[in-house]
Amino acid sequence: MTTEPTGEPPRTSARRGVIHDIGYRPFTGRRQSTSAVALSLYLTSLRHCFGIGRSGKSKVMPWLMTFVLLIPALVLAGLLLQLNKMSLSDQADLFAPLANYFGFPYWTQLLITIFAAAQAPVLFARDLRYRTVVLYFARPLSRTTYVLMRLAALATALFAVVVIPLTIWYGAALSADVDRGEHTKNYLAAVVGVAVLALMLATFSGMVSAITTRSGLAVTAVIVALMLTSGIVKAVQGAAYDGDHRTMSFIGALLNPFSVASELISGLFDQPTPDSTVLHPGPGWTIGFAVAAVVWTLGATAILLERTRKAASL
Questions:
Q1: Does the keyword Membrane apply (predicted)?
Q2: Could you give the C-alpha distances from 14 to 9, 10, 17, 18, 300, in angstroms and in order?
Q3: Residue 281: pLDDT above 80?
């Protein structure tokens, strides 16, 4: 028995195909420009410096150092206000160097060093160790831009954690009966000094983190390097002060970013030095310390760029 053709096409399944969502992001607009990508990297890096967007324990160290740095500034500000209340503002210098604003980062250099050492590996060591840095270069972002944005974020974070206490101290001084012109001049000079210091610390700690690529080792290396050179500088300056050897004192100061920034600001803006053993440089040595600050910054940046280039090409 045969079946007669009906003249209808054969039936096919109504389900012709299935689109699976395998995790790709949908189209949300045109790709952003290189400047927009760089700005996004900078802001993300700055947030990571303070643990924002990271785990809870990642927030402990940066915020702890930030709050601890506020304590000396609050004490100095309270002392100024108390002297003003007791009508002793004209004798403020007998109690403490209350107008020596750049002395603050010099006296608290251990806390600032810990902050820089703890946050630099977050921005540099992990990307290079796990080779996630190559993912950044898949975007329209050059290696130089990547390094500069990371460094800018770290320098901004360092600048902020030092300048905020200085500003509180300065605000208390303005409300007291002191020489406001002197305090304003010293405060602005200190702000410039902190900016120079932040650049040197950011580039140096970033360079060490990129070379070691292990967070724990990088933190230790940065702290040991900066504190060891600081101790050497103080020993050399102390010996030079006792023996009246000015040249030896200035040469020793070149070994550490804190002493370089201190001598530079002291000579450039005619500021008091943060310690009696730190001598005031003349015009020639002021230029020398300016060159040293540039070498500290550009030298470390060049090494960091080369290290990033090699890691990305592996």
A1: yes
A2: 14, 12, 9, 11, 65
A3: yes
Q: Alpha-carbon distance 51 to 122, whole Å?
A: 10
If we measure between CA atoms, which residue out of 312, 304, 311 comes closest to residue 147? 304
Residue 201 or 314, more confident: 201
DSSP state of 139: S
CB neighbours of residue 282 within 10 Å: 12
CA angle 67, 73, 75 (to 5 degrees): 105
CA–CA distance, 99 with 76 (Å, rounded to integer): 10
Domain ranges for the chain: 34-313
d(CA 268, CA 157): 25
State pLDDT tens for residues 193-221.
Answer: 999 999 999 999 999 998 887 888 999 99
Tell me the C-alpha distance between 197 and 193, whole Å. 6
Report the candidate in 118, 135, 119, 138 with the shortest Cα–Cα distance to residue 127: 135
Phi, psi angle pair for 170, to nearest 5° = -65, -40
Task: Round to whole Å and give the CA distance between 48 and 127.
Answer: 13
